[in-house]
Amino acid sequence: MTKPIKLLTALTPERRERLMTLAREVSFREDAPIFEEGGVADRFWVVRSGRVDLYQQVTQLRRVTVASLGAGDLLGWSWLFPPHEWDFGAVAFSPVRAYEFEAAPVLELSEQDAGLGLSLMRIVAEILAYRLESTRVQLLESFQHPLR
User: Which residue ranges does the record assign to the Cyclic nucleotide-binding domain (predicted)?
Assistant: First the structure.
């Protein structure tokens, strides 16, 4: 499987610089919820340090981690697509520092700079494809080695 793509390093320096004008530095303490499934998806983050777990709530008392994200990883893509609700929940597994981007200004900038908008869409699509493939591999491995 290919290496995961990182949003900020995949952009050209000029486009990265334009996007970063909209960034705000934030931090989350260990075990802090970042967003919950079904909540309003109006922003995204690029993790600078620490680890974030994406999870699916299976029952009221049980949740399953579906991915772990670290430095350079994109956290959140639901802001791009209606109904703009989070498909998963996210929690800081360790102390996390990140760049936070509000969706509305990023979308506005993408309309003003079509090249940046197209680059963002392509990079996010590539990230999603990588994560889908990773999940497929994990599922196949779990069925090859079922618990007895």
Answer: 7-76
Residues in CB range of 105: below 8 A, 6 or more apart: 22
On the question of pLDDT at 146 being above 70, the answer is no
Q: Count other Cβ atoms within 10 Å, centred on residue 84.
A: 13
Across the chain, what does the average pLDDT equal?
92
Domain count, the chain: 1
Start-end of H helices in 78-113: 103-112
Distance CA 73, CA 37 (A): 19
Task: Give pTM, 2 decimals.
Answer: 0.89
For residue 75, the cross-strand partners are 45
> Is 91 domain-assigned?
yes
pLDDT at 74 over 90: yes
First to last CA, the chain: 28
